[in-house]
Amino acid sequence: MSANQSVNTIIHARWVIPVVPKNCVLENHSVVISGQQIIEILPSDEVTAKYTAKEEYSLENHALLPGLINAHGHSAMTLFRGLADDLPLMEWLNDHIWPAEDKWVDEAFVADGTLLAIAEMIRSGTTCYSDMYFFPNISAKVAVDHKIRTQICFPVIDFPTAWANNAEEYIHKGLELFDQYKNCDYVSVAFGPHAPYTVSDEPLKQVAMLSEQLNAQVQIHLHETEFEVQESIDKFGVRPLQRLADLGLLSPALQCVHMTQINDQDLELLARNGVHVIHCPESNLKLASGFSPVDKMLKAGINVSLGTDGAASNNDLDMLGEIKTAALIAKAVSGNASAVNAHEAIEMATINGAKAMGLEEKIGSLEKGKWADIIAIDLGFLDCQPVYDAPSHIVYATNSHQVTHSWIGGSIHMKDRQLTMIDTLHLSERVHNWAEKIKASDSENKG
Ligand SMILES: [Zn+2]
After folding, report:
1. Are 19 and 88 part of one and the same domain?
2. Residues 181, 59 share a domain
3. Are residues 119 and 264 in the same domain?
4. 283 Cα–ligand 1 center, Å
5. Where are the alpha helices (DSSP H) in 218-280?
6. Tens digit of pLDDT for each residue in 319-338?
């Protein structure tokens, strides 16, 4: 009698969509997890001969996917969800968001807002997210305490906020954070210069130099609107992307968020320098910022990943919704119904996000040796019948409430839709308290 190998967890599923290799759907397969890693994916009827697990899940109507990667957001802004809607970007920022941030953002706000974001993201299938917000030291701690993966982009901005007074202080505090988390499995610290119109040349040059020295990623909002591009031409004589190129920032470490305005020269600069683009279609739609030519960028070999942006401009952090929007809008923008097919849309929300963050050896696909960051989506509902093609349903016919299970590094974070690491009752009370305070002051302002 041959001895079975004892492992932590085995998940049996109707479908496994590993993302790598491309366009692959495995039927009736099982994922075997030992420690934090996937050690094998094999046909379910071969599992018992090889392995014995402490915990076993039989998900008969479910598809397993790598956990979704939300490559751009401002987590704590969940507490401003629905506070100011139906406004263009600059009016929304100048008259609503920045004044509200001035008044409310402190350590407690960031801790509670970040946890609310994490709860929402796990419930909708995200297992790794990027965050750019004030008090990144607090948001990093909340992520580690709740064992979710995050890229923390510490802000760099010319003007003072509650976290720092000037660009020099932002960078100094950010470097301390980088040091603190350089060996952490959950947190990668990146530079987060806010945008070309809020950061001047000197700090941008410093970011370029330091990120290269430290081998750290850089994330920036770029070419979000036509107005931004025109303002840069008026002020600096060049488009923002060219200005960043002149300052030495273009490299495979750079993640450009939005890129709704792209001419041929921009396309060439992005492709030649291996720059990553992070597409946030719902935020672009809501703020009427423009349409990113995703199909064109993918065909030029540019890595395009997906983000929700903050909950104040989306207004949710639902990556399954974002995947569907991205797939649909790419067809409308390119005039080509074959643009961004279901598999490509799923890649944008998984492996492409991992590449942008420099984590493609660890996450973004279900492969032997990778961290076991996995989600299960139930396709057994009547509104998903029949199932000819599971990836098609995931992109075009499911919603986030069908995500039933989530594992990060092999640890279960959601089981049958119940969060296992977050006290949701306590969280709801704290969010309610914030809302009461913010609402009272908002109506006072309106007199
Ligand atoms: Zn943003």
Report:
1. no
2. no
3. yes
4. 8
5. 226-236, 240-246, 264-272
6. 999 999 999 999 999 999 99
